[in-house]
Design a protein that fits this description.
The structure is a homodimer. Chain A has helices at residues 3-14, 35-38, 49-55, 57-62, 97-101, 184-187, 198-206, 223-230, 243-246, 251-266, 281-285, 290-310, 341-359, and strands at 17-19, 28-30, 70-75, 80-86, 104-108, 115-119, 128-134, 141-146, 153-160, 166-167, 177-182, 209-214, 235-241, 272-275, 316-319. Chain A is α/β, with parallel strands linked by helices.
Amino acid sequence: MSETKKDAIATQEEELSWFDPLATEGLRVYGFAWFDRDHRYMRFPAASDELVRKVSTNVANLSGHSAGGQVHFRTDSDTVAIMAEIAAPSAMPHMTIIGQGGFDCYAGCDYQDLKFYTTTTFPISARAYQYRFFTGIPGEKLIVINFPLYNKVESVKIGLKPGALLKKPEELPQPGRIVVYGTSITQGGCASRPGLCYTNILSRKLGIEFINLGFSGSAFGEPEIAELVAAVDGARMFILDYEANAGSNGRLYLTLEDFIKIIRRRYPDVPIAVVSRIRCVFAELNPETAGKMRRELKEFQMKTVDSFREKGDKAIYFIDGATLFPDDYHEFTVDSNHPNDIGFYWMAAGLEKEIRKIINI
Amino acid sequence: MSETKKDAIATQEEELSWFDPLATEGLRVYGFAWFDRDHRYMRFPAASDELVRKVSTNVANLSGHSAGGQVHFRTDSDTVAIMAEIAAPSAMPHMTIIGQGGFDCYAGCDYQDLKFYTTTTFPISARAYQYRFFTGIPGEKLIVINFPLYNKVESVKIGLKPGALLKKPEELPQPGRIVVYGTSITQGGCASRPGLCYTNILSRKLGIEFINLGFSGSAFGEPEIAELVAAVDGARMFILDYEANAGSNGRLYLTLEDFIKIIRRRYPDVPIAVVSRIRCVFAELNPETAGKMRRELKEFQMKTVDSFREKGDKAIYFIDGATLFPDDYHEFTVDSNHPNDIGFYWMAAGLEKEIRKIINI
């Protein structure tokens, strides 16, 4: 790059005004259930840090991953940029570096009109980066920026043209929150960019806040974690999608009933959907071993739901994860376990239908 | 990892027999048009190395990327592994490291039954790696392994259980080759794994060999390159999909007619489809600038095709790339330019229909 061009870019960047979501009224942060109290991009409350670390070091670390975090605002700036610092360069080979540690940007007139614009790009070894999502798009617009799925955001600032309008967005079309507890899949592995994690797709499709409590490889349904899931304020529905971590080791059998009971103590009537695992080619190739285990786990989840319903809890549902992918199901993962973007697209489409029926939106 | 576990893995790997596609009768390599003569994983012939480098250093380098390469074989080994060396660690942030530098594996009874099994995984900085695609899957099967999309394969070996059957696969369901000339999108940016590059999806769906001549950022339609595209033996159809590189700089206007004429000299009757660019949100947001340019480029491609047809060439077709994505088109890229897996899935679905009509399969 020539010096002149470098200078030009530097000057352009200097010309932007930078706003920190931690300190800016107009930037509204979604997806972190305790953000208003704790002012940090963490998925569990500060008051429980010690407890969570005792229960599971992995969950404690992963609760710092910003999956499901979003910042929303309205602006008439014709340029929107971002400046971010993440905890460490991302390192997983089966997910893009920008899906792990980047942000993506949607824009439109309002929540019904959001369109994907673009994604941060930066050297794969970068721990800090700056990126212009767009420039030269006039008019007032609603902006939704999705946070990294598999990295911790140490700091983030939004860059706008100096003097541009910056104000809080309108309320989301739907009040309340849908809280999803689950695995690496819930956390967004392996979406190509943050907006394609299934909870983020659903938040756009349904116009409601999602609280993503997916903890890669670590969703074992511990009662202390269940208490924190139940502690999310304003829940309108819960989704429990943790067979992929707690199935083969037997923990699902040990924890599911108690998990539901813990939610019920805080939320007696809020719908709970238990979602079984998506299809996996190796389960189908080994019908007598992995396949058998899958069938039994699915039956167990169905029966658990049935037993609550029989006892009068009519707000509990079972969703068969195996039905979410169409015939070519084997194509829709990156490694036979983690959905690729097609997989998330189908998961979101199937879950959207079920959620609409369940909470009637 | 404990020493014991490390040793166990080492012992397991030692127990496999390793086969090099360059020197093994039973391993059939597809996707490199000059493989039988040159015995290398390059997309252009050795005899033209010097010429290509004179025309375009980028194309010369990218012709070493193994996009579209595949190795097919039949085996009854219950384990299939791979050992590969690539030119350098992959470095793009918006495509997975395994999409850039890894292999993925499909298996089934025959070409109609292929299912995606899994993908190599390795540290992102690795230049050499070894991976077991699966183990414990009994019976004879057809295996199709897709090569890296954005890296150069220095060497690759297939690992099987010692003494296992290894033989050439049956012929592909369809004879001949479909030759695709194009951009980074053609080359597979940004599929999450090699098998989801649109030419690889189509090779499975249609049961025919594809020759992927996508050259990221460098598809300028030079006549020397057109000569090499036309030099592919056994072509049953050509697809020219290079607007995304040659559109905004005007080169498409300068080269398309000659490109078609060059193909026609070698293949007077083989169908040629000109495909315009997929939809892009920024073209739609800027109808008077980028949008206008897109409309003009599309019209130019349509008119060029029409003018050949009017002169009696009935084997030339125009496919409107903008129709390949459904309504949510803006979701189907990773950066507003490069399809993500959903984008490739839709591209392949749309092109499959058109190709079936055109070559009647």
